[in-house]
Amino acid sequence: FMKPLINAMMWDDPSKRPTMSEAVQELKAICSRLSCWRLRAPVSNSVLILRPFRSAYHWSHQIRLMRRGVPSKPMP
Predict the structure, then answer these.
(1) Chain segment 6-54, per-residue pLDDT in tens
(2) How far apart are CA 53 and CA 14, in angstroms?
(3) Predicted TM-score (pTM) of this structure
(4) Cys-Cys with 38: which of 1, 6, 32, 34 at CB 3.0–4.6 Å?
(5) Beta-carbon count within 10 A of 20 CB
(6) Exposure of 27 in the CB half-sphere (CA atoms within 13 A)
(7) How far apart are CA 27 and CA 76, in angstroms?
(8) Residue 34 near residue 73, CB atoms below 8 Å
(9) DSSP alpha helices (H): ranges in 1-76?
(10) How does DSSP classify residue 14?
(11) For the chain, how big is the Rg over CA atoms in Å?
C-alpha cells in the first residue's frame, strides 16, 4: 500500500518527486484508509518455520499496546 508513494519519492529527477508537504498529505491519506489492525500488522517476512512464533509474539504485544491505549498511528 506504500509502494506508489515510495516510488514517487525515488524519481531520479527531483522535480518529479512530491514535495515534503505533498508526501505527508499522501501518507495521511493512506493511513486514514487503513484499519487499526492493518496498521499494526507485522511488516517483515520471517522464515516460514518461525512465523507462527513471531506472529504470536507480535499480536500479544499489539494487544498489550491497545489495552494501554497506545494508538496504531503516532500522533504529534
Answers:
(1) 899 999 999 999 999 999 999 889 888 888 777 777 766 666 666 677 7
(2) 43
(3) 0.54
(4) 34
(5) 9
(6) 11
(7) 14
(8) no
(9) 3-9, 20-33, 36-40, 51-68
(10) G
(11) 16
